[in-house]
Amino acid sequence: MDPTIIVALIAGGFAIIVAIITGIFTLWKNKSDKPSKSSNPIISGNNIIMGNEHTNQTVNIFESVPQKEISPQGIGEFKSGNLQIRKDPDITEIPYSQFLGRQHKILREKYLKLTPREMADFYQFDKASTLEAYEAGDKEFSKAHITSTVNFFFVNHEFLEKGNKPVFKTELAIDSKSTQKLLSKNFLPFFLVEIKPQDWLYTYPIFHKSEKGFSRTISLNLCSFHYNSGSRYDIEQIIRLMIERNIGPYDAPVLKVTQEIWKSLQDEEFYCKDPYSLGHKDFDCQDILVEWYEKIQEKNRQE
Fold first, then answer.
1. For the residues 46-57, what does the mean pLDDT come to?
2. Residue of 151, 209, 204, 152 lying closest to 183 (CA atoms)
3. Helix or strand (DSSP H, E) at 268
4. What is the average per-residue pLDDT within 241-251?
5. Which of 97, 120, 191, 238 is the Cys-Cys partner for 140 at CB 3.0 to 4.6 Å?
6. Is residue 17 classed exposed, middle or buried when 0-12, 13-18 and 19+ CB atoms within 10 A define those classes?
7. Can you name the residues that pair with 203 across neighbouring β-strands?
8. DSSP letters of 77-119?
């Protein structure tokens, strides 16, 4: 056989062997690079590391857990997709200052709709960053801070300290004492009715006042402008006190509000900066208020 042919056959066979070995090595390497199906999340501090040494992905525990699940009693055990988060023995509880700060921020942003600068002015902080430090949990709100917020804005203190609803306190009983106290402090009455027509003409009386550059609002229990309603007496109670303080019937506007605002009243989450901006006047219910006002006024003259 020609020597040239022999050399060519040997070279070709060697190339085939090299190709086979290279292919086997490539398949082995790809398989070893894939994350193990049995790999479990590793908790390290506040982070969870997913995958193996080649494919680590770090997830922060507090970003993975919905905020509403977090409480001062601890994070507990939650599931997010295929990721199961268990209690980390190093962070079994959220610091009280952090929880309180978070609740305060929710109150300020979602309900009171005040900026950090405005809320800092309420506490007489020189810098808005001081308030932000409190809300971040770097500092703890004092008892005096909480008391001033609860009393001024009629906040349920358990919402701030425990996360329990309702958000705001409501005067459940419409009596001469509570109503007279509000009127004596120059709160003005408003009557809010749902924009959707109702047979019983339900209304939420609210009292509002601007003080120190901030709005103070408190709602009372549900009443009705219907002539045969038992809660008509509650409205007449307010009218009698209005007459005593020379507040006219048109000084207590009856306003139609959206279903969203109506629901916030039902859920005791209602707060507003300007009641006049809530809606348009309900002329029918306003006429009923004027009628009842004039009847009580006439009766007072006869006595």
1. 41
2. 209
3. none
4. 95
5. 97
6. exposed
7. 223
8. -EEETTEEE---GGGSS--HHHHHHHHHHHIIIIII---HHHH
Query: Looking at the chain, which residues constitute the CATH 1.10.260.40 domain(s)?
Result: 96-161
Secondary structure (3-state) at 196: coil
Contact 229, 200 (CB under 8 A): yes
Instruction: Provide the 3-class DSSP secondary structure of residue 201.
Output: coil
Q: Could you tell me the pLDDT band of residue 61, with boundaries at 50, 70 and 90? A: very low
HSE-CB of 300 using CA atoms within 13 angstroms: 13
96 Cβ contact partners less than 8 Å away, ≥ 6 residues apart: 72, 140
Please give the backbone phi and psi of residue 222, each rounded to the nearest 5 degrees, phi first: -65, 135
User: For residue 143, what are its two tokens?
Assistant: 């008892």
Share of the chain above pLDDT 90, in %: 60
Question: Are 94 and 46 a contacting pair, CB within 8 Å?
Answer: no
State residue 76's pLDDT score: 35
Q: What distance in Å separates the CA atoms of residue 209 and residue 275, rounded to the nearest whole number?
A: 10
Q: How many CA atoms lie within 13 A of 181 on its CB side?
A: 6
Q: What is the DSSP string of 133-180?
A: HHHTTSS---HHHHHHHHHHHTB-HHHHHT-PSPSB--B-S--HHHHH
Question: Which tokens is 65 given?
Answer: 């857990």
**What is the CATH code of the structural domain delimited by 96-161?**
1.10.260.40
* Chain length of the chain: 303
Distance spanning both ends of the chain, measured CA to CA: 141
Please tell me which residue, 173 or 72, carries the higher pLDDT value. Answer: 173
Cα(79)–Cα(111) distance, rounded to whole angstroms? 29
CB-neighbour burial class of residue 65 (10 A; exposed 0-12, middle 13-18, buried 19+): middle
In this structure, what token pair is assigned to residue 173?
């009983």
Q: Is the pLDDT of residue 140 over 60?
A: yes
Instruction: Extract the tokens encoding 160.
Output: 């701030």
Token digits for 46?
A: 């506040």
Averaged pLDDT of the chain: 79
Give me the pLDDT at residue 231, please. 85
